[in-house]
């Protein structure tokens, strides 16, 4: 049974990654890993800051809601 659950988890991760890829949403963990490998002296942003920066770059910092 444990191997079945591992396969289910792997499948869920794969679906999540596909969804992120389709929506062009960045992968925070991969970004932090890359940042630490390339220059460990840089302090990575928090996950909230990372996604806020992504959304600001994509839609503009002054994007307003329509509703």
Give the gist of this structure.
The protein has 67 residues and is mainly alpha-helical. Helix content is 69%, strand content 0%.
Task: Write out key terms for the chains shown.
67 residues; mainly alpha; 69% helix
List the helices and strands and how they pair.
Elements: H1 2-23, H2 28-38, H3 47-59
Description:
The protein has helices spanning 2-23, 28-38, 47-59. It contains three helices and no strands. The termini are far apart. The protein has one domain (3-59). 69% of the residues lie in helices and 0% in strands. It has 67 residues and is mainly α.
Outline: flat
DSSP, total strands: 0
Total number of helical segments? 3
Average per-residue pLDDT, rounded, comes to 83
Low-confidence stretches: none
Name the helix and strand elements from N-terminus to C-terminus, one letter apiece.
Answer: HHH
InterPro entries: Sel_put
Protein name: DUF466 domain-containing protein
Pfam families: Sel_put
């Amino acid at each position: 049974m444990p191997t079945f659950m591992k396969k289910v988890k792997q499948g869920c991760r794969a679906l999540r990654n596909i969804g992120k890829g389709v929506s062009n949403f960045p992968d925070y963990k991969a970004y932090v890993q890359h940042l630490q490998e390339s220059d460990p002296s840089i302090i990575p942003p928090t996950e909230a800051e990372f996604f806020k920066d992504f959304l600001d770059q994509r839609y503009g910092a002054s994007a307003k809601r329509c509703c």
